[in-house]
Sequence to fold (350 residues):
Amino acid sequence: MLPLTPFSATKLLITIYVCFAGTLITTRTPHLFCPMPPQSKAVKIIFDSDIGQDCDDAAAMALMHQFADRGEAEILATMFPMHDPMGAPAMDVINTYYGRPGIPVGTYKGDYEYKGKLYDHYNTKLAQAFPHDLIKGADAPDAVMLYRQILAKQADGTVVIVAVGPERLLADLLKTPPDTYSNLDGYALVKKKVKLLTVMGAGFPSGDEWNIKIAPDAARLVAETWPTPIVYSGFEIGSVIRTGSRLLTETSANNPVRAAFENHPFVDKLTKDRQSWDQTAMLYAVRGTQDYWSLEGNGFNRIDSTGKNKWINGPSKNHRYLILKKTAADMQKLIEDLMVAPPASVAKRP
Ligand SMILES: [Ca+2]
Fold:
């Protein structure tokens, strides 16, 4: 340990003061040496994901939990927008692996029929092989109601929603009436509580992308009426960033994110990598542009009734889309480092 000079002693006192100030503001248990930034700086995340269709959803959850471990994010809930009874349990598996088994998990309970085949490439396998306590989707709360319940409790303008599947829940949320959770309707509740929506979906300058196409009315309603800024990570962003092979060489068989990649048929047979679409939306939601991306915001994203989209240059409508600034190789390293890092709860064990 270095000797305590007058300068370092002053710095330590300032650090302790800042820690206590931060904990007093956030009313959390004070921790003397402030191992993480004050919680008030953490981005409050609701993660909305069609886990099981592709393995990048599981990888995005790995990033989300790493950000939480590092004090960069606070996870409010994870939401599954489909009928598959094992989507919510798969989310519970990953939350449990990362030491947060109590995160609320909501699931879709409406009657919308998606336009295309849906998949359970690994949800059931995760639920069968890994510890968790949410047995089936029927046991999880209605995701739209859970959105209302959680949003109502948050400080105004603080919540960031990361949507990396169809936007069914978001569209349905906008249409909800006032209830016991809030006297605001869905639109007003979102406008009051949500700071930002980041979407993996569409393509730029134009696209025909799966997340949008399987529930085009939902994506269109959100694009046209969502009352906060929306940042899209288009198909082209994650396509060039290939990750996943290091899960096999740097993490153990008890990692459910690794198992998601092992069980996904579209992982490249030779490289063992997969495109990193969903991770990019999570990365932007928590860290912003950094030197990773720039944003195009001169215009708006128009979605047609079939789910095709096109960026229309002209007046802004609160829409932005990501443009990659770093190399794909740099982004691959950055994202995969987060995917393979052990949970803090495991790393601390002797
Ligand atoms: Ca997805």
Q: What stands out?
A: Confidence is low (pLDDT under 50) at residues 1-39. Residues 49-50, 53-54, 57, 164-165, 278 surround calcium ion (CB under 6 Å). The chain is about 40% helix and 15% strand.
